[in-house]
């Protein structure tokens, strides 16, 4: 077959790359840096997205929140029974939860109040309730996530924690234990206490709850249930899991899109730098092409050789860049870089980036680097390939 | 407007293409107007050099465009996750009025660029380069198609509205849909299949008769009938669902990306088939084109036929 | 075999200065002949070699080799013509110094995407013929001048060309090596190759196997 790969030409191209040590080194370092940075960013956003998605997945299908003047208000617990009467709803649970700002450490904890004898709205919570005893009203206990545990340790709350109630007095709650949850984003900043204790700390009356979560047995009926609920509660916000998911994805597309906008500028710079480097033909290089043409290489052959050269160097750099990014993100947990994307890292306790492998990211980075490099060498390659052999070898 | 990293990547490459394609366009016009093989003056010599640059640029664009087309479909698939209602690329294509035209234009451009390259290769084999004027003339037309494609792509991504609920492929490719696609469901499957296999048989017979013009023509017809039967009949066996007809879903991971193979086979088979009639070249080359065409069309037919046959063997019934 | 018809070559150094390298030269060389172009440096003899090799085009006139007007070939086909017909031994050898002997000799074959076995056979043949096989893996820049020349000759012959062109082949060699070059020319003539040597080395002027000596002076045959 005529189309088989020309090993001799590849060998020659590799030799040519090695011959121009400094130029090749410079180009591959720039290239590796570029792919490394880009891949790292995508890996980080993918991981965060995965975390968020699995957090969202654990959420109930529908959440109903009462709003007044655009702000969320506590909802009546009595609404639960009305909602249960809606056809298609398999369960409705009143939730009490909120955020507690711990000033000493400058972080927010999410606090969830649970009742042992109720259904829990997600399995991870049910597990926690089964494992830990949350105590009585006068001797309350709490289960805390790993991140919370670390922060409390640092602030010398080793066995208990003092919450500041809304009237300014303190409420001492003993730590019952530390739990693990499915995703780190979810578990890290979470404190689970009994509903009674919750109401006491945040001064919430027995008849109220933060919001109501609704389970629907048949997921295709969600839309119908939502429209019925809209009629019942025209002034409440009704959030479905799907819409949350889409808005999460949009936020991250927006964030990495923003980064990509910056990246366009660096790509352009890359293009210019490479172009500048490759177009500065050394007399040695010109002479070499002159020799090749004099002994019977066609313009097409020289161009092909230049293409092989650039493909080898860019593909090699691409692989190295991606490999480094993988190590950087998943082994070293992307120091510095991930803080750009985890915007609330200051407020929320930190978490680990899970390993998410997405082939599309690799394609994406490939298309953003290799074709651009090859484009940058078109003009210089053409110029050298069409040189007058006679003039350069004299 | 959707501006995911994938879409931005497409935009960046499109910008790059526009830049290079414009340079190639300007040079092409010059070459088209002034090319004269018999001249030995400096101007002709310069044109000759520039023709290399132009050809290199066009080659570059084509080489990147092929995998980029797959990436484009891949991207549509991914965007479908953002659009309420869409399950695969079909939903995204259908989300705007431009989607269908864009995909068709992209496919057309792939065929034309591939044809241009074949013409160029043939041209470079002859000392007096008989096709140089024609090929750069063709590129001038091709340039406008390429630019239309790029503009249309931008317009399409801009027009996509995340808030709007779109149809999923199940709705678009169903007999109840009011669009032109539903027409093919009204035709009996047995008739379509007869046409499909009959057409392939014709191609095989023509392969032995070596009538290149009819061979090319039957290949052109084969593209159409293949796509129709793929939607109306073979697709349902790939999904093993009598109601699912989508020509995009099987590009997804759930179906082991078989769609890419299917379309690549069809493209190569029919492209070389068309080439036999459209490119005057050496006997050797033509017989090679015949062979490649028949081989890939054969692979396509076998590959698709295996789905219903295996289904029948496993389940003992037809869908 | 080789025919120059009223060929003129003018080099434009810049807009004003021009150098007339060849002035209306006509020359005819038959197949299997050994022709020596004699002349001082700058006389235009190298330009004749360039024209025959289609490395440059005549400003006016024609160059015909084997019935083909090579002065009208496009850049690509000039290369193909050189690849198939011409073995050029340059004055400065024009080897790639950092490559091995073997890689240098194989260079003309590389774009042809040769079969490995076929390429090795051709390589072994020319390396034996020009006594360089023992240095096959040596890097060219570490070789002596005589060895480098033999590499250049081997490279020129790997495609088994009909025409061998040599530009000042003995300029950088001592007498002993020059004599061994002459032996090589003799053996090439025995293979019925057409050989054109541009030189001002008197060693070449009185050789019995040289068919003609053409004297060039200021771009004119005298």
Model description:
Chain A has 394 residues and is α+β, with helices and mostly antiparallel strands. In chain A, 55% of the residues lie in helices and 18% in strands. In chain A, strands 1, 2, 4, 5, 6, 7, 8, 9, 11 and 12 form a ten-stranded mixed β-sheet that branches. In chain A, strand 4 and strand 5 (107-114) form a beta hairpin. The radius of gyration of chain A is 31 Å and the shape is elongated. By secondary structure, chain B is an all-alpha fold. Chain B folds into two domains: 5-166; 173-315. Chain B has helices spanning 5-34, 42-80, 89-95, 99-124, 132-159, 169-172, 183-186, 189-209, 212-239, 258-278, 283-315. The longest helix of chain B is centred in the N-terminal third of the chain and has 39 residues, at 42-80. The radius of gyration of chain B is 22 Å and the shape is flat. The relative contact order of chain B is 0.10. Chain C has a single domain (31-58, 73-221), classed as P-loop containing nucleotide triphosphate hydrolases (Rossmann fold, 3-Layer(aba) Sandwich). Helix content of chain C is 31%, strand content 27%. In chain C, helix 4 (116-129) packs across helix 5. Classes of the chains: A alpha+beta (394), B mainly alpha (319), C alpha/beta (222). The interface between B and C is small, with 7 and 8 residues.
List the helices and strands and how they pair.
The complex is a heterotrimer of chains A (394), B (319) and C (222).
Chain A (H helix, E strand, L loop, with lengths): L6 H13 L1 H37 L4 E7 L2 E3 L1 E2 L2 H6 L4 E14 L4 E8 L8 H9 L9 E5 H9 L5 E5 L5 E10 L4 H5 L1 E5 H8 L5 E2 L1 E6 L5 H11 L3 E5 H39 L3 H12 L4 H33 L5 H5 L17 H27 L3 H4 L2
Parallel strand pairs in A: 5-9, 6-8
Antiparallel strand pairs in A: 1-2, 1-11, 1-12, 3-10, 4-5, 4-11, 6-9, 7-8
Chain B lengths: L4 H30 L7 H39 L8 H7 L3 H26 L7 H28 L9 H4 L10 H4 L2 H21 L2 H28 L18 H21 L4 H33 L4
Helix pairs in contact in B: 1-2, 1-5, 2-3, 2-4, 3-4, 4-5, 8-9, 8-11, 9-10, 9-11, 10-11
Chain C lengths: L1 E11 L5 E12 L4 E5 L6 H8 L7 E6 L2 E2 L5 H11 E4 L11 H6 L9 H14 L15 H13 L5 E5 L7 H16 L3 E6 L12 E6 L2 E2 L1
Helix pairs in contact in C: 4-5
């Amino acid at each position: 077959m005529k189309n088989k790969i020309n090993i001799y030409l590849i060998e020659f191209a590799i030799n040519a790359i090695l011959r121009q040590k400094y130029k090749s080194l410079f180009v591959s370092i720039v290239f590796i840096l570029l792919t490394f940075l880009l891949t790292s960013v995508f890996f980080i956003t993918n991981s965060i997205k995965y975390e968020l998605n699995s957090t969202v997945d654990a959420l109930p299908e529908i959440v109903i929140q009462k709003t007044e003047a655009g702000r969320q208000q506590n909802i009546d617990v009595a609404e639960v029974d009305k909602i249960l009467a809606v056809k298609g709803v398999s369960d409705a649970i009143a939730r009490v939860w909120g955020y507690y700002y711990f000033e000493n450490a400058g972080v927010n904890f999410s606090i969830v109040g649970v009742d042992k004898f109720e259904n829990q709205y997600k399995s991870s919570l049910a597990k926690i309730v089964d494992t830990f005893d949350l105590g009585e009203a006068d001797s309350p206990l709490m289960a805390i996530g790993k991140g919370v545990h670390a922060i409390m340790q640092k602030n010398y709350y080793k066995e208990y924690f003092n919450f500041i109630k809304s009237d300014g007095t303190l409420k001492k709650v003993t730590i019952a234990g530390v739990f693990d949850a499915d995703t780190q984003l979810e578990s890290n900043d979470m404190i689970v206490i009994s509903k009674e204790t919750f109401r006491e700390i945040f001064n919430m009356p027995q008849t109220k709850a933060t919001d109501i979560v609704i389970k629907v047995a048949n997921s295709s009926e969600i839309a119908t249930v939502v429209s019925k609920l809209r009629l019942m509660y025209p002034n409440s916000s009704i959030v479905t899991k799907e819409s949350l998911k889409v808005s999460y994805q949009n936020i991250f597309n927006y964030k990495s899109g923003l980064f990509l906008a910056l990246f366009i500028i660096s790509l352009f710079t890359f293009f210019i730098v490479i172009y500048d480097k490759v177009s500065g033909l050394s007399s040695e290089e010109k002479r070499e092409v002159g020799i090749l043409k004099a002994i019977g290489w066609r313009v097409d052959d020289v161009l092909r050789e230049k293409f092989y050269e650039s493909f080898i160097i860019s593909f090699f750099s691409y692989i190295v860049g991606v490999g480094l990014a993988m190590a950087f993100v998943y082994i070293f947990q992307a120091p510095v870089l991930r803080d750009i994307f985890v915007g609330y890292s200051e407020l929320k306790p930190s978490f680990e980036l899970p390993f998410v492998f997405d082939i599309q990211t690799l394609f994406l980075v490939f298309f953003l680097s290799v074709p651009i490099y090859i484009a940058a060498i078109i003009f210089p390659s053409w110029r050298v390939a069409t040189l007058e052999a006679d003039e350069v070898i004299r | 407007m959707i501006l995911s990293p994938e879409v931005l990547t497409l935009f960046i490459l499109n910008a790059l293409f526009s830049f290079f394609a414009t340079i190639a366009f300007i040079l092409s016009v010059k070459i088209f107007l002034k090319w004269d093989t018999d001249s030995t003056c400096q101007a002709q010599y310069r044109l000759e050099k520039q023709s290399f640059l132009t050809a290199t640029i066009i080659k570059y664009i084509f080489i990147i465009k092929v995998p980029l087309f797959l990436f484009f479909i891949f991207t549509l698939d991914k965007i479908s996750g953002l659009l309420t209602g869409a399950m695969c690329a079909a939903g995204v294509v259908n989300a705007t009025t431009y989607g269908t035209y864009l995909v068709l234009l992209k496919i057309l451009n792939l065929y034309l660029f591939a044809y241009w390259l074949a013409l160029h290769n043939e041209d470079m084999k002859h000392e007096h380069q008989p096709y140089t004027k024609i090929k750069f003339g063709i590129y001038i037309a091709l340039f406008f198609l390429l630019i239309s494609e790029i503009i249309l792509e931008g317009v399409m991504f801009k027009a996509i509205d995340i808030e709007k609920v779109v149809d999923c492929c199940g709705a678009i490719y169903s007999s109840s849909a009011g669009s032109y696609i539903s027409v093919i469901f009204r035709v009996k499957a047995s008739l379509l299949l007869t046409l499909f296999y009959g057409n392939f048989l014709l191609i095989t017979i023509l392969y032995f008769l070596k009538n290149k013009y009819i061979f090319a023509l039957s290949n052109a017809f084969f593209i159409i009938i293949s796509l129709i039967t793929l939607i109306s009949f073979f697709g349902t066996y790939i999904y093993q669902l009598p109601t699912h007809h989508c020509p995009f879903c099987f590009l997804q991971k759930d179906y082991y990306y078989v769609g890419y193979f299917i379309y690549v086979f069809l493209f190569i088979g029919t492209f070389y088939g068309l080439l036999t009639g459209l490119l005057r070249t050496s006997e050797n080359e033509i017989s090679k084109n015949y062979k490649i065409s028949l081989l890939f069309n054969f692979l396509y037919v076998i590959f698709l036929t295996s789905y219903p046959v295996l289904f029948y063997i496993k389940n003992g019934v037809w869908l | 075999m080789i025919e120059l018809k009223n060929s003129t070559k003018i080099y434009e150094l810049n807009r004003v200065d021009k150098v007339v390298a060849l002035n209306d030269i006509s020359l005819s060389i038959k197949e299997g002949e050994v022709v020596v172009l004699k002349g001082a440096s700058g006389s235009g003899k190298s330009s004749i070699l360039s024209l025959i090799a289609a490395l440059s085009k005549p400003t006016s006139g024609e160059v015909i080799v084997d019935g083909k007007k090579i002065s009208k070939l496009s850049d690509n086909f000039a290369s193909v013509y050189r690849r198939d017909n011409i073995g050029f031994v340059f004055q400065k050898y024009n080897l790639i110094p950092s490559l091995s002997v073997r890689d240098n000799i194989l260079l003309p074959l590389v774009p042809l995407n040769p079969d490995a076995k076929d390429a090795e056979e051709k390589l072994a043949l020319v390396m034996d013929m020009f006594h360089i096989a023992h240095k096959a893996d040596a890097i060219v820049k570490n070789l002596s001048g005589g060895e480098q020349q033999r590499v250049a000759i081997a490279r020129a012959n790997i495609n088994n060309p009909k025409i061998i062109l040599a530009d000042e082949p003995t300029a950088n060699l001592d007498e002993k090596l020059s004599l061994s070059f002459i032996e090589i020319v003799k053996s090439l003539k025995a293979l019925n190759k057409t050989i054109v040597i541009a030189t001002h080395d008197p060693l070449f002027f009185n050789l019995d196997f040289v068919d003609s000596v053409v004297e060039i002076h200021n771009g004119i045959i005298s």
